[in-house]
Amino acid sequence: MEDEIDSNDANSSAVVIRKRRKGIYVLPNLFTLAALFGGFYAVVMAMNGRFDLAAVGVFCALVLDSLDGRVARMTNTQSAFGEQMDSLSDMVSFGAAPALISYIWALKDLGRWGWFAAFVYCACAALRLARFNVNTAVVDKRYFQGLPSPAAAALVAGFIWLATDLGWKGTDLAWPMFVLCLYAGLTMVTNVPFYSFKDIGMKRSVPFVVIVLIALGIAVINIDPPTVMFGIFVLYGLSGYVIYGVRKARGVQTSVISTSTDEPDERGLHK
Questions:
Q1: I want to staple 50 with a disulfide (CB 3.0 to 4.6 A). Which of 45, 92, 181, 220 is the partner?
Q2: What angle do CA 66, 72, 74 make, to 5 degrees?
Q3: 176-231 pLDDT, tens digit each
Q4: What is the pTM (predicted TM-score) of this model?
Q5: 127 near 202, Cβ under 8 Å?
Q6: What average pLDDT is seen over the chain?
Q7: CA separation (Å) from 242 to 13, 37, 110, 238, 270?
């Protein structure tokens, strides 16, 4: 009996415990890949002269990008891989795609000034995303530090969508497109606070009237999607400066960095 027990112990000790192989969560990354496809689709449609569909592709990427993070948190499937994948997708859909679409649609007629504006927008989107990744732990969650890249892309794509819907040509709106690209790009890298809507609890119960208002909002968007969507993001693109001005007038700190400035790594972030 003792010999049998000893042999079992020897066999059990000889068993090699295999480590569980690390994998990738499918659901949140599926939304991220779909958002990436929206940006790729937008560029392809712009190359084919379908600027209305190009703008729609950017807006679809915006919706999908807003879902991947929420899905990951709701299903507890956050990962470092997903964060990196999301940043790369955002750079394509909200950085490179709007810059290329605006250049093909209107800015190329301005020569060097055209690609200057497109590059400034693209570069600012990259800087905005890099700063967001670095400052995630110290920024007040209620606000974005600078205009978020999806909103900046919606400004550019929304303008193109509205102009195309009204029958206007890009060649006639080259300089307005130039100004809008610079505004959207430079606003992304400012320290102006933009409300993030992250403090709105999606799991909490709400009054019945809130659902009615959401239904009315969807109905209003369906009346004239290009005009309504562009109008919404114009208001949001200006809201940060309003918040900044109100805070400045009241003597409240305008920075959205929420931690102490005594830490060496945080010096300069409040400027």
A1: 45
A2: 100
A3: 999 999 999 999 999 899 988 876 666 667 677 878 888 888 888 888 999 999 99
A4: 0.82
A5: no
A6: 83
A7: 68, 34, 32, 7, 19
Q: Which residues contact 147 (CB under 8 A, 6 or more apart)?
A: 128, 184, 187, 188, 190, 192, 194, 237, 240
Average pLDDT score over residue span 161-178: 94
Nearby residues of 144 by Cβ (< 8 Å), 6 or more positions away: 132, 193, 194, 195, 196, 256
Number of domains in the chain: 1
Q: Does the residue 271 lie in any domain?
A: no
Domain encompassing residue 37: 26-259
In a domain, 224, yes or no: yes
Among residues 107, 208, 229, the alpha carbon closest in space to that of 157 is found at 229
| Beta-carbon count within 10 A of 94 CB | 31
- By percentage, how much of the chain surpasses pLDDT 70? 81
Question: Closest Cα to residue 118, out of 137, 132, 104, 136?
Answer: 104
